[in-house]
Inverse folding.
């Protein structure tokens, strides 16, 4: 995928996204997600395998794959917003290309188009097994910028 | 929603769905999901609030809402299959109608159309707060019947 | 489907929706769509079969089924808006439950949730053959209210 | 988007796809679509502007954008199938990134993953105005291979 070039409206976007991700109980504690890269309009998050994340055959539960894709896309969108704004997911669609077996999941989110209110994003999910990365899911999503009421 | 009437191909479908759900580490242990109703082409699963399921504002993380909807729709499809078949999620789309606050989530999955290979399902998710049920998400999904390799 | 009850913000909503539909070249002229019912949060449009609407096997082309569902959902949303606002489609997902054979198509759009900016809608499409109505497609969509620049 | 490399199972795939597209009344006659490129797992179709394809503001109706994306993705999938098989659309989701103004539409469909029965595809739609190509819509879709009953 050709990465689109985006200009961030907040020079401190990286720290803001990292802190938001780390303070999310579900993504950081329940799923153990680590944000390994954040650029304007792009975000990469990894989730390491834990037994409770798996289905009976040993592949990742779709709910965790979906949560990872949603988060990677959401932080890609957040990276482009001004301070004081937050991102909410309006909707997403995810296609499960292949079962996700391996040591960890890689989620790469990207902003396809950034509007005033709505942000169209995509996310690609890969499973890494014995060092080999394989595509397992593909998401497209609509994100909306809203005032950040936590502050 | 008018419930469609379906005929199960396996008289033992309820036990089979209950056992499958209880043996899923992600749904039963990680999310604590309980299957409270299973009928031909219909399934209801509840997930009680835990601190790690929440976002910073106290509402459920979308990943858990999505996992619940996916499971409710998947078991609705499984309830109509012959023994020896399993269900995999091909894709789903979920719309987040409102933030999900409350004591627990209710997921109701339903089969819209049951084909030979593919099953079109929907799921409605509600959050229950102080005993009041409020719609928070809506999913449509394509499920595929595959041989059950766990047996 | 249980119809939700909605209150229109424009008492003249029915005329406004009818006029908008009749003035759309694509829906009214190309596809010959007729709005047969418009209520607050609900719209029904019919499209009669023409040879150019069909695939090689004689069933409706998916593009026409999709256009009908999009229009029925869009006018359901427009019926709830104040004068001076227009509706644009943010995204939709459509599932093709069965091939659409028959004399005409029926599209029934409904608003699931009406927010300030975004409107979540669904649409069900039926094909009528020898007087028998059969479900052929199901859509969910996000609509956005924007200022009507045509006026 | 990095184009995936695919191997066709039918050496005559290009002629088969061209003929199928030309014989579709809706795509070839109603919308005037021209297949300008067909490669293994890839298809490009153009639709020239006609007054009846437009909305009141002069942009393409979403139904035509959707039909183009569906066809481009479908022929990308068909290009990989053995003779005697046909493609049906299971479902698609389309996001409307921007209104589509211009002289013609370009639809580029691609196969993301080709399975035995199901084919995951995407399509990007561009509007060309004064020679400048602008992205206007993005689709992901599930296609299914079925026996071709027309032969």
């Amino acid at each position: 995928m050709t990465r689109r070039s985006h200009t961030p409206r907040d020079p401190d976007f990286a720290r803001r996204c990292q802190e938001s991700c780390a303070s999310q109980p579900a993504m950081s504690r329940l799923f153990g997600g680590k944000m390994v890269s954040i650029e304007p309009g792009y975000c990469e998050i990894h989730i390491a395998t834990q037994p409770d994340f798996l289905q009976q055959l040993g592949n990742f539960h779709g709910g965790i794959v979906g949560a990872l894709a949603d988060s990677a896309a959401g932080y890609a969108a957040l990276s482009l917003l001004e301070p004081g704004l937050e991102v909410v997911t309006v909707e997403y669609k995810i296609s499960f290309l292949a079962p996700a077996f391996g040591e960890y999941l890689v989620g790469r989110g990207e902003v396809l188009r950034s509007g005033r209110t709505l942000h169209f994003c995509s996310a690609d999910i890969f499973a890494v097994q014995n060092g080999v990365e394989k595509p397992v899911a593909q998401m497209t999503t609509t994100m909306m910028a809203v005032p950040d009421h936590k502050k």
Summary: The longest strand of chain B covers residues 132-147. The two ends of chain B are 35 Å apart (CA to CA). The beta strands of chain B are 34-39, 42-48, 85-96, 104-114, 118-129, 132-147. Chain B touches chain C at residues 1-2, 93, 95, 97-98, 112-113, 120, 122, 135, 138, 140, 142 (CB under 8 Å).
